[in-house]
Amino acid sequence: MTQIEVGKKAPNFELPDANGKQVRLSDFHGKKVVLYFYLKDNTSGCTKEACSFRDHSGAFHRRGAVIIGISPDSEKSHQKFIENFDLPFTLLADTERRAAESYGVWKKKGMSGKKDMGVERSTFIIDETGILIEEHREVSVPGHVEAMLSAITG
Question: Does pTM surpass 0.85?
Fold first, then answer.
């Protein structure tokens, strides 16, 4: 697992979007990137988070920021998620969990007394030159997107 650090270059990645197009973090040089890792398409908390990003996407765009969501789900799953909730931003399929591991969000989690590996809901803000300027881990959905919008404006 790679250690990432605020003030250092954010790990680059290359992953397919919902349509199979390869997308790299470096493709967004010159823009702020709000990169969020989530657990699974079409689940309660992840849907609330995605819809909150959707509802604030215009404000992020006006501030020169792009939103990118990453989960271990497939491209086909992302297509349905985007269609179901009219999501206007990029979702990337990290089926081999390479990006999740490079950002340190693929972790052992306990649920119902059972330990399993999974994505820790996290958001990273990357500046126009590819430097990680903020990281937010173990994110709670209510109020999170509004906090990220404030973070990129100030």
Answer: yes
